[in-house]
Amino acid sequence: MNSILTIALGLAEHGLPVLPLRADKRPFGNCRACEDLACGGRPNMATPGPCVCPWPCHGWAAATTDPGVIASPQWTAAWRRARTIGYHPGGAGVTVVDLDNEAAVDWARATLPPTTTVPTTRGEHWIYRGTMRSVNAVRPGVDLKSTMSYARWLGPGTGTLTELPDVVRALADKQPPAVRPAAPTVSVPAGGGECRHRSPAYLERGIAMAEQRINDAPSAVHTTVYRTFLAVLSVHGRCGCLTETHISRLFAAAQAKGESLRHCTTAWSNATTALGM
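User: That's the sequence. What structure does it adopt?
Assistant: Structure tokens below.
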């Protein structure tokens, strides 16, 4: 048993839902059965746990404390390729204030109550007891990771874990859950193909996963938005199920990451062109 797997099993035993992360610090991509949500996604994307397939699929939602899953042959194969361990803060009942540079750390020391802190490559993680919605870029160099998100395990840290303060919750309150754009002037692909959706929930899960994929992008947002639009259209674009409401939700997720309406419209147009729609 390799050391990363041993550590992961120890963390899970103490209630930390874990998942393997690649060398680029991101979760492994979905397996072929789950690619582009062909499997329909997890039944409830608000909670972590293994997918119905045996592989560590669906990003943060794969995080689990089940030793039988963590040490299964499929997960063991992923751990052999993994370079670090990720965990789902919300599933562990905590929130991570991810401080990405020295200025952000200085701000935290002057503003936030003391708690458990863990050094990172460029800054620190400040960890509080309590959960909230995850929001990136609440201020320069500061991300909030809790529900529907993952963080790297970098050790137990130092200091006593304290309750999530209102000042941290207020950072998220200043960020709207979704930035609804004006009605985008893009086309909804015409129907005509056979609808492969097993139920309305299938499309809903697909849109929710796409929103989360954009929200979780740590960099290369332009590329992530385009590839996400392309993935949604490749699965849902030819049967006429997509509506302006669905497109607006995708645009809102992209704009929340800093994309302009023009970039969103261009990415959507390029994706439809690439698929011959």
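Residues 200-274 form one domain.
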